[in-house]
Specification:
mainly alpha
């Protein structure tokens, strides 16, 4: 049950399950600057109130974007995991349908072997992502930890099994922007889910049901 959702959620840290550009584009191989980065939409434009991007060089800026897109993908899977895991609790074939309660408690209820399997899978996936996009630490300067390869576009690990990557550079940039925006929304949603469940101990799906009952009672 929730374990299936959790496995997908955690594996998402490898950024392997979201639509990503499988080939380099002109913007990907050119200078990576705040002027050509996808993800800026009206009315906010390029939102950087604390000035992190303004103070960053191209190498640091690419690292920021890599972190953002990866966290966004994990968050999208997290939101899905919350909703699916809680919706099927007590009725799934996994773990004899014994996993119950709010999603934040599900991971603590799964057997140890499932935890070990999840951590092993995450480690293998993250190692592969690092080999794909990161410079070998032995070849990087000591003052540049986590240095990305020059020809690596943040988030582009070449995973496109459905062949949905547009060939047109403008359409590709639009797809990247959509993914970023959905990831940003998901990060806020996942944080809200965690906070809400930690406060009152009720699952998100349960909150939805209570809200629907209250709306019906008050004729909203």
């Amino acid at each position: 049950m929730m374990k299936l959702a959790i496995a997908s959620l955690l594996a998402g840290s490898a950024a392997a399950f979201a639509p990503v550009p499988a080939a380099r584009t002109s913007s990907a191989i050119g200078a990576f600057t705040v002027d050509n980065m996808p993800g800026a939409l009206a009315p906010m434009g390029f939102f950087d109130p604390l000035g992190f991007a303004a103070k960053a060089d191209e190498v640091t800026l690419k690292r920021y974007r890599e972190a953002e897109v990866t966290h966004g993908r994990v968050a999208m899977l997290a939101v899905l995991g919350f909703l699916v895991g809680e919706a099927v609790e007590g009725s799934s074939f996994l773990f004899d349908a014994q996993i119950t309660g709010p999603a934040i408690d599900h991971f603590l209820q799964v057997p140890t072997w499932a935890d070990v399997l999840a951590v092993t899978f995450i480690g293998a996936a993250e190692a592969q992502r690092a080999q794909f996009g990161w410079v070998d630490p032995a070849d990087a300067s000591f003052d540049q930890p986590g240095l990305l390869k020059e020809d690596y576009y943040p988030g582009d690990i070449g995973f496109d099994p459905l062949g949905i990557r547009p060939e047109d550079p403008e359409e590709l940039e639009l797809m990247i922007t959509r993914e970023l925006q959905n990831g940003r929304l998901a990060m806020l949603a996942a944080a809200g889910f965690l906070a809400q469940e930690a406060v009152d101990g009720l699952g998100i799906v349960e909150h939805f049901k209570i809200s629907m009952i209250e709306s019906a009672d008050f004729g909203l």
